[in-house]
Amino acid sequence: MRGLTTAQADDIRRALHAAERRSGLRFGVFIGEPVGSRRHFAERLHAALGDEADDAVLVFVDLRGRALEIVTGERARRRLPDGACRLTAMSMATVFSVGDLVGGLLYGIAALGDQATARR
């Protein structure tokens, strides 16, 4: 997790593991610049999870482009519909807009994990 302190990266990893334990889904975060279109790049990252992709949620943050994408696998989407992801993304973007990348990620990971758990 380039650009983050060790403590920040550890906090994000703990949040990812907590969301995975609660929901049974696989969660991942990628912070960086896309190669090509942002959505297509995020979808390729998600697909690279291979056999785990159907049960996975990927949060891609494009810092330079000031944008974010949430990609869900086929089975994960049943528990995290696009509307729920969209609302979480809007809340994350609000936190990002005040300069708090880590806070936005921690909020988003927890919210997605909670929503997926509630629909389990």
From TrEMBL:
Q: Which domain of life is it from?
A: Bacteria
Record protein name field:
DUF5130 family protein
Instruction: Please give the InterPro entries that the UniProt record associates with this protein.
Output: DUF5130
